[in-house]
TrEMBL record:
This is Ribosomal RNA-processing protein 40. Keywords: Cytoplasm, Exonuclease, Exosome, Hydrolase, Nuclease, Nucleus, RNA-binding, rRNA processing. It is found in: Cytoplasm; Nucleus, Nucleolus. GO terms for molecular function: exonuclease activity; RNA binding. Residues 17-64 form the Exosome complex exonuclease Rrp40 N-terminal domain. GO terms for cellular component: cytoplasmic exosome (RNase complex); nuclear exosome (RNase complex); nucleolus. InterPro entries: Exosome_RNA_bind1/RRP40/RRP4, KH_dom_type_1, KH_dom_type_1_sf, NA-bd_OB-fold, RRP40_KH-I, Rrp40_N_euk, Rrp40_S1. Its main location: cytoplasm. SUPFAM superfamilies: Eukaryotic type KH-domain (KH-domain type I), Nucleic acid-binding proteins, Ribosomal L27 protein-like. It comes from Crucibulum laeve.
Length: 234
């Protein structure tokens, strides 16, 4: 793990290399006039890679979400557009979601989302010169795998870093809350978290805990969260 700055070369190499947020592949000419691909950082942050070195990305606690392929997001339908929808995912431009980009969708059988509907989707295309594209199924299985319309519940906004933390299986918060009461959570990498619980006070407790644990909100630890939950009687 190391700190990188925009324009800095990154030693990312793998036969099945996949670049995540903050990295870009470019072509650099060498002294022998040959060209070779090089990986450069497009933003400042901490360089990370998967255990096998196949996926590399830069982590930074930026305020605006920059979409990257394969990332999950929570979006709001803003209007219909032909055979699809425009979805606000917190980026500079709205994302497009085809009406057929759902499990089992066909011309005769497709979801009928309304303006204001919430969706949990996967970014299928992300390019700086094109609007992002979304899909509501897993790319490999073609099954929903949790993606699709989110009905009921409540959306909490948090920092992008907090979103990544909640998606980390080793993070303490969601397992701790799940041990107290049943809940459903859909975490978007765009700093939006959809939460649903049986009781209103439980939903409020989840929202409060996410806000308190977020480094932008105080960075509360596990013992502090336990005391907060006790005080909220959940």
């Amino acid at each position: 793990m190391s700190i990188v700055l925009p324009g800095e070369n990154v030693p990312a190499q793998h036969v099945n290399l996949k670049l995540g947020p903050g990295l870009l592949q470019s072509t650099t000419s060498t002294s022998s006039d040959a060209s070779r691909p090089s990986i450069i950082a497009t933003r400042a942050g901490t360089l990370h890679h998967s255990a096998n070195g196949a996926k590399w990305w830069v982590e930074s606690n930026s305020r605006r979400y920059v979409p990257a392929a394969q990332e999950s997001v929570v979006g709001v339908v803003t209007h219909r557009a032909g055979e699809g929808y425009r979805v606000d995912i917190g980026t500079a431009h709205p994302a497009s979601l085809d009406a057929l980009a759902f499990e089992g969708a066909s011309r005769r059988n497709k979801p009928n989302l309304k303006v204001g509907s919430l969706v949990y989707a996967r970014v299928s295309l992300a390019h700086k010169d094109m609007e992002p594209e979304l899909e509501c199924f897993d790319a490999q299985t073609r099954k929903a795998e949790g993606f699709g319309e989110l009905k009921g519940g409540f959306v909490v906004r948090c920092s992008l870093k907090m979103s990544r933390d909640l998606l980390d299986p080793s993070h303490f918060l969601l397992p701790l809350l799940g041990g107290r009461f049943p809940l459903e959570v859909a975490v978007g990498m765009n700093g939006r978290v959809w939460i649903s619980a049986k009781e209103v006070k439980q939903t409020i407790a989840i929202a409060r805990c996410i806000g308190e644990v977020d480094t932008d909100g105080g960075g509360m630890g596990i013992e502090g969260v336990k005391k907060l939950l006790d005080s909220l009687d959940v």
